[in-house]
Queue: 3 jobs
Job 1
Amino acid sequence: MSIKVYLTVTSVLIHSISATYFPPEVENHNISKLAYCQAEYPNPSSYKPMDDSTLLFVQAISRHGDRTPAYFAPKDTTIWDICPHKHYEYAYANTVPGVQGGVKIDTYTDDSDEASNMAGLYWKGNCFTGQLSRKGVNQMEAYGSQLRKVYVDKMNLLNKKLEKDTIRVRHTNVPRTLASAEGLMTGFYPSGTGGNTTIGFTSFPQEKETMYPNSLMCPRISQLGALMRTTPEYQSYFNNSYSDALRLNKILGYGSSVMANSTLGYRAFADVFWAIECHGKPKLCNEDTCITEDDIQLSLKNTLFELTYTRRLSPYADEYNKLTGGAFFSQLNTELAKQIDYDMHNQCAEKTNNGTVRMSIYAGHDETIVPMLAIFKTNNIEDYLVPYAGSIHIELWRNNTDKKYYIRALYNGNQISTLSDPTTNEPWCNLNKCDWNTYQKYLEQYIPKNIYQECKLVQ
Ligand SMILES: *[C@@H]1O[C@H](CO)[C@@H](O)[C@H](O)[C@H]1NC(C)=O
Ligand SMILES: *[C@@H]1O[C@H](CO)[C@@H](O)[C@H](O)[C@H]1NC(C)=O
Ligand SMILES: *[C@@H]1O[C@H](CO)[C@@H](O)[C@H](O)[C@H]1NC(C)=O
Ligand SMILES: *[C@@H]1O[C@H](CO)[C@@H](O)[C@H](O)[C@H]1NC(C)=O
Ligand SMILES: *[C@@H]1O[C@H](CO)[C@@H](O)[C@H](O)[C@H]1NC(C)=O
Ligand SMILES: *[C@@H]1O[C@H](CO)[C@@H](O)[C@H](O)[C@H]1NC(C)=O
């Protein structure tokens, strides 16, 4: 399906916006809502090792799987009955395979629809807002099993049986990312392959979280958001899309704070519509008007515009990307630097007494991945619509001949192509093989030097 998008990807626009072009239109961008519902998994048959090089370490950063809407729209009449009854075999891993013992975790949601447990006052069904669905759990397990095919079966980076301390897992302090990490690990080391060990999960409190835009800790992030909405470019988008927003909101019934002129974003509409579409549930109606297929496309298109504006086109985009993605990149790069340091001194990756750390798994959100893609300067704007179970893999390689270190970054198992700099006409790096020094040096400009200072409100 071909739709118009208010964007173009010419470098002229990306690096300097001219109001006379705005909003520019291009015809040949297809957004598939089905592509949004399900990310492409890493594919073991098309996965190619880097020539003449050894894979040392991988950072796998993922978005959670399919979920219920994260926003609560009072007039959403959908029956949200898609939530899991799932037990995680993984908790068996601290026993000898086949021997019962330890703790088996069984997650379930209450299905009874009785007034006495307030069922139906909020939503119909068995889910809470932003909950990982059964489909979402299955997506994460499928993603984990593809990871296994690539990094265990094909690359031998990790042993077929889980060895102690070879994998680190971090998730945000949100139920759906914890459940996603559990699903992922269940697919990665299925029942019987857990060895005689446990795996540690960690998460940071919100006060320290770097895996999503943390405006609680960094008020400048909200201030930048507000500044971006006041530009003439954004105002013209806003004015053009306002009457549709009012129409759609009649059906969703968001209150004044979501609909306020200073905050309105189509994301809040898309959030509900897409959850409905990804489950083939009936489109919402109110009295005689119903959401149409065109409305779904409009919500996709406008959400993509909002993301592209805030992450790329706006004059504040660089600072916004820095404050929302820089601190996480700092942690990722510290971890990579440590691996390199170990490797240089021992010709092997970081060793603990118990094993060699080979992979770090980060279970996060679209807002974990979007700042990274924006900082990487992906040239495909549709990348900003991060599908459920979407992933970035950052691989650390050592060249067997010259012993130099290279980074390869993949998005949903595919190459990431980066924009050319308008002055040099060259991309900042080829992310299919980027030497570590170039990678690290480029990212440094996005890492806040003094985050406490840079996060303060600017008067
Ligand atoms: C969009 O989809 C149409 C119909 O499937 C196809 O002909 C066209 O090549 C696609 N355009 C792009 C840019 O992929
Ligand atoms: C598993 O680990 C426990 C505790 O470290 C140890 O006592 C036991 O012998 C191990 N079992 C096997 C089969 O390695
Ligand atoms: C948007 O609409 C507001 C209120 O109607 C108006 O004041 C403003 O000039 C418009 N801005 C643009 C860029 O059209
Ligand atoms: C909100 O913005 C729209 C479009 O610019 C405008 O028509 C409307 O009057 C504004 N509403 C308020 C309450 O400012
Ligand atoms: C290795 O495993 C032992 C026993 O489980 C644990 O006490 C120790 O802290 C581990 N060492 C490291 C470096 O992780
Ligand atoms: C590895 O290093 C050798 C020697 O510098 C070079 O010829 C080769 O292209 C490098 N291979 C890769 C994949 O970088």
Job 2
Amino acid sequence: MKVIFFLFVIVFVKIDARVFVGKCRKIPAPVVEHFEFKNYMGVWYEILWYDDEYETFDECLQFTYEDTSTCDSEKTFKTQLKLQSPTDNYEEQQKYYGVGKQFDGGKLGTGTIYPTAPNYFVLATDYCNYSFVWDCFNVNATHYNERMWYFDRQPNPSSIPRKVQSLISKHFDKRYVRKTYHGDKCRY
Ligand SMILES: *[C@@H]1O[C@H](CO)[C@@H](O)[C@H](O)[C@H]1NC(C)=O
Ligand SMILES: *[C@@H]1O[C@H](CO)[C@@H](O)[C@H](O)[C@H]1NC(C)=O
């Protein structure tokens, strides 16, 4: 399963995701208001995320965002995802490419084509250490898919930032939070 791939391929989201019964709640915390787009670019490692209902095989996840804006009116970026899988002994590093854009404040969108609506809500970031991202959409009338990610600038941060801990404990179910492997087998 190309889990984090859902950041890229909206179609896959409907298949590979933690699906809950009910409808999406409102955004659990406000998005970052004065979002510093340029400072957000660069490399991010996935540290924690809401897992799938079944086992997934994506580890060593690293995102690189590159500013492609040509003027100040629209902020756009290129995305590159690198990941490795324990199912092939981390032998192969897979790479996926996509695009993204900023809608309003910390409301971003990413996909293989330019997104038409935000699907990447930055609830907290200090740009140089961590970012906390949320998204949710209704799959159909009875089920929804909610996602969250804690990204860090380092693959093995010494501790979880207090802001991230507080968001998770207040608004998310710890039973579904999974840690991404960033051990010796990862090649970045
Ligand atoms: C945040 O990142 C900066 C720059 O890399 C670093 O100097 C600082 O120690 C980091 N802070 C924490 C709490 O990790
Ligand atoms: C809605 O989606 C869920 C999860 O994919 C699925 O189990 C359920 O059967 C769907 N309901 C309908 C009415 O399609």
Job 3
Amino acid sequence: MADLTTGTLGDTLRRNGVSRRGFLKFCTATASMMALPPSMVPVLAAALDNAQRPSVIWLSFQECTGCTESLTRSHTPTLESLIFDHISLDYHHTLQVASGHAAEAAREAAMQASAGKYLLVVDGSIPLGNPGFSTIAGVSNLQILEETAAGAAAVIAMGSCAAFGGLPKADPNPTGAVAVRDIVTDKPVINVSGCPPIPVVITGVLAHYLTFGTLPELDQYSRPKAFYGTSIHDRCYRRPFYDKGLFANTFDDEGAKKGWCLYKLGCKGPMTYNACATVKWNEGTSWPVESGHGCLGCSQPDFWDAGGFYNALSIPVGDISRTASYAVAAGVALGAAAAGINRKTKTEANRQHSTVTVDDLEKTS
Ligand code: SF4
Ligand code: SF4
């Protein structure tokens, strides 16, 4: 187990050869992502430089390990990964060296040593159908979560399974899976949704916590607004094609080759709030829509039950030119379909996995 009490983040970064210039560049980018004014960059830099190692306990329940993969996968050490390393982990099912009694003893020791101050990160959903569906060292996920959350300063629900129930909760939810927020009701719970979540988002949440000692502003689903405040569609570089009614109809037609909008191929970007379109993946290399595939909506609640990945949910399947005119007339960020459909109709359509047509737009606009 790492020593959690010595060394600042600045020490860690310097030991790993991060230059002052590189560090400030990171602080500027992080402040920008967190929607902080430029004047906050020196504050962020000073706070991160002097930040002590916070104690973090990471629990994994019904999950696929994709969230941990996402956060730790890096071929070269980046500032993000170094910050992630810096927080260290008193306990992490997947990453820790210790096992068996030693591992559980480490969790208990960390809980005692930093009572009321440690951050609890959880990935995976919690099965309530039967305590035996998922256990660690013979103890049910529910019991471990309740015990560990009791002494935490805050809980980060990492990934859509912990945030919303995710794949285990998908219909028919055989294990009775629930989200962290369904269990932990007396502590701040911050949902970092995504399947998996973007690594830099968790880094940003941690940077905010280390800098201000508070959690960032959250949206209606308890997600940090800085990263989940705008839809994929609002920031998508293919949006101009959408607005002009230029859509790919298949993955290999002329429209696809020209990079036209993937809405008709099932893109859920208009209903999905995440930072993929700006932060991208693999250290800013690309993101799904840029590689030619529509957004699956993975950061939204119950996205597994929101229809087939390739079914266009709210796509106007009638006359595209009429569709485009709705977008222009409405002039709102959600785009033509969402603009023309009242909220109730759209929500119901999503729930029923049904397609919304141009006729529906006319009925409800
Ligand atoms: S529908 Fe998808 S591909 Fe088209 S503009 Fe919106 S997010 Fe981009
Ligand atoms: S583009 Fe959509 S489905 Fe893909 S990772 Fe981002 S939010 Fe999830």
